[in-house]
Design brief:
alpha+beta; Type Iii Antifreeze Protein Isoform Hplc 12; 6-stranded antiparallel beta sheet; two-stranded antiparallel sheet; 4 helices
Length: 283
């Protein structure tokens, strides 16, 4: 056979193989695109669910997610493990429920279920200004400031003292409580529950009875504990050196009153008093 012909046949054979492989790859890609992607069914919230709610079957539904189920979600077949557990953060309709958003089984619902092991929820009364501003919401971080007169320090130069008591404290909840005033009438009191250690709970309890408490909002990413010495009213009116302004002393200059002495002069049956200025005085 002609050598030239063999070369042409070999080249044609290689081209045919390349075209075949290309066609096969295109067909596979089209088949994969037409095939529905793998999905998984997970448990989700049927409606908006508030913090502290104990889940029931009516609160739950299932949603389909593309691909493998996200880590931490509850598969549809394990739906029963979510029933009866408390919600420790707000859930929204259609949101897949994560295990980390639920309290441990048997711990119940309400605020108590959101408290981690070894921590405490301490209620603090705040004024209406804090409530109206609306910044104190669950999950926020605040500093606790107190103001008052320290025991045993009644110095008028210092006056009221403000001090940062606690820093970087998490807010668990904020709401309104009703208490009776001096006349026995119910009045609304704004209450914020803070997540603290047992030691911090004792400090807050004591401070709430002895001083005025104010909450100061801070950036959640700012976890640095600042060294704050405290500020007294007297320093607000001081100079740049920060020393309290000293009270201006008033010196009353005593007038120079000359000292005198008297001598009784007896002349027969008559007597008289004669006054004379002391030495150094003015008559």
């Amino acid at each position: 056979m002609n050598r030239r012909l063999l070369t042409i046949l070999l080249v044609a054979f290689l081209i045919a193989i390349g075209c075949t492989m290309l066609v096969v790859r295109l067909v596979r890609n089209q088949a994969a695109a037409a095939r529905p992607p793998a999905t998984a069914n997970v448990v989700a919230a049927k409606t908006d669910i508030k913090l502290g709610t104990i889940l029931t079957a009516d609160n739950l539904t299932t949603v389909e997610v593309v691909g493998a189920a996200p880590q931490g979600t509850i598969p549809e077949k394990n739906k029963s493990i979510a029933i009866g557990r408390g919600v420790i953060s707000d859930l929204y309709a259609g949101e897949p429920i994560m295990e980390s958003r639920l309290a441990a089984a048997g711990s119940g619902g309400g605020l108590a279920a959101t408290i981690p092991q070894g921590m405490r929820a301490c209620a603090v009364k705040v004024d209406d200004v804090v409530n109206v501003s609306g910044f104190v919401t669950p999950g926020m971080r605040v500093d606790v400031l107190i103001s008052g007169t320290p025991p045993g320090e009644q110095s008028p130069e210092q006056g009221t003292v403000a001090k940062t008591l606690l820093q970087n404290i998490k807010v668990l909840s904020a709401g309104t409580d009703y208490q009776k005033d001096a006349e026995g009438k119910a009045k609304a009191v704004q209450v914020v529950n803070l997540l603290v250690t047992p030691e911090q709970a004792e400090v807050l309890s004591l401070a709430s009875n002895q001083a005025r408490i104010q909450l100061v909002l801070r950036n959640p990413l700012d976890t640095k504990i600042a060294e704050v010495p405290g500020t007294a009213t007297g320093t607000l009116f001081a100079g740049q050196n920060g020393a309290p302004a000293k009270a201006r002393s008033t010196v009353t200059k005593k007038s120079s009153i000359p000292k005198t002495f008297s001598i009784e002069v007896i002349n027969g049956s008559k007597s008289s008093q004669e006054k004379f200025a002391s030495p150094g005085g003015h008559q």
